[in-house]
Design brief:
- This protein has a single domain, classed as Alpha-Beta Barrel (TIM Barrel).
- It contains 9 helices and 8 strands.
- The protein has helices spanning about 25-35, 80-90, 150-165, 185-205, 215-225, 240-250, 265-275, 305-315, 320-335, and strands at about 10, 35-45, 65-70, 170-175, 210-215, 230-235, 255, 280-285.
- α4 packs across α5 (about 215-225).
- Bound molecules: zinc ion (ZN).
- Zinc ion binds near residues 12, 14 and 286.
């Protein structure tokens, strides 16, 4: 046993990402074999990344799960997914009703994509074409593109299929207003997708993974108007205790803590983690991103989780083993994982 042996569950890591140069699955398998970690959740970023699970076959990666959805920056390339919206909002006219009544198909156990149909089935007539209306609009380029309605039907149908996959442990959405100046229509578009995914999470009883960057207030607004009925984590959390409290009042149940905690400039986050009850904490790397202090110039991997856990233990004045034990239990509860070793 070496000192890396902690068997931590990495609640958020992108081992499909190109920064690993195709070596992500092997790296992940190796870390699980060496008991550095005991499993991981791989959340989607781009639409295409939702289909990375083929690289992680269940037989070889029995403790690896996925969060289906889109990074909020990536929704800017998508027209609104109206057909999915109609599925969870029966008030809107649909070409054909969803075969399962709302509420009836909610449980994950009852999920069965094989016979599932919904208004966006390929080949179905479209209720209303993508109109390019403000609010539906991701980027100017999407306006009136031929085939946009068909594209959104196909893409939302493929996501719906994934939601029925037993390895889908959560849905990923959020708001990211950082860096590039976004127009009001683009911000609204992100909010529409977030509302859509909250609706899907409620409908299919899946927890929500929220990416919230430079948009804490707006995230709370959306959550207040669209209450999640399942658990929700703000991943890569980097705010203060007041913000954490406000988010919890709006329905957030957990906070993903990773490399941000170690960075000198994030004093308010460390103060927050000192106060935050252990049951509200999930450990995550966001690998290959968000490398902790001391790993500059390197690609982040789950090896750094133990350092994050140690820092949390120091802040709280408790043993690191207690932090890891609690974080693993929290992860199993949050993602409703069975047989986590
Ligand atoms: Zn991520």
């Amino acid at each position: 046993m070496n000192k890396e042996t902690y068997k931590i569950f990495d609640t958020h890591a992108h081992y499909d990402h190109e920064l690993f140069g195709g070596a992500g699955p092997e790296l992940l398998k190796d870390m699980i074999a060496r008991d550095v970690i005991c499993g991981a959740v791989i959340p989607a970023i781009t639409f295409e990344s939702n289909f990375c699970r083929d690289q992680f076959p269940k037989e070889e990666f029995p403790s690896v799960y996925f969060a289906a959805g889109l990074h909020p920056k990536c929704v800017l390339n998508e027209p609104a997914w109206g057909s999915l919206k109609r599925l969870i909002d029966p008030g809107e006219p649909a070409g054909r009703p969803f075969s399962g009544e709302p509420g009836e198909s909610g449980s994950r156990d009852q999920k069965n994509t094989a016979g599932r149909s919904f208004p966006g089935d390929p080949g179905e007539p479209v209720g209303r074409p993508f109109s390019g209306e403000p609010g539906e609009l991701g980027s100017r380029d999407q306006k009136n593109i031929p085939g946009a309605a068909k594209r959104q039907q196909d893409r939302s149908a493929r996501i719906l299929d994934l939601i029925g996959d037993e390895r889908t442990a959560a849905l990923k959405t959020g708001l990211d207003f950082s860096k590039k100046k976004l127009t009001d229509a683009q911000k609204e578009h992100q909010k529409q997708f977030m509302k859509l995914f909250i609706g899907l999470a409620n409908h299919y009883k899946l927890p929500l993974v929220l990416h919230v960057r430079d948009a804490a207030e707006e995230c709370v607004e959306v959550l207040r108007e669209n209450s999640p009925e399942t658990e929700a984590v703000v991943h890569c959390f980097n705010y203060d205790m007041d913000t954490a409290r406000t988010m919890m009042e709006a329905g957030v149940t957990r906070f993903g803590i990773g490399g941000m905690l170690t960075r000198d400039e994030n004093g308010p986050l460390r103060e927050c983690v000192r106060e935050l009850p252990l049951p509200n904490i999930l450990l995550e790397t966001d690998a290959p991103f968000v490398r902790p202090k001391g790993y500059e110039g390197e690609i982040n991997t789950s090896v750094t989780l133990a350092g994050t856990a140690r820092l949390i233990a120091d802040l709280k004045g408790i043993a690191v083993g207690k932090v890891i034990e609690a974080a693993n239990r929290n992860a199993a509860e949050f993602y409703r994982l069975k047989n986590m070793s």
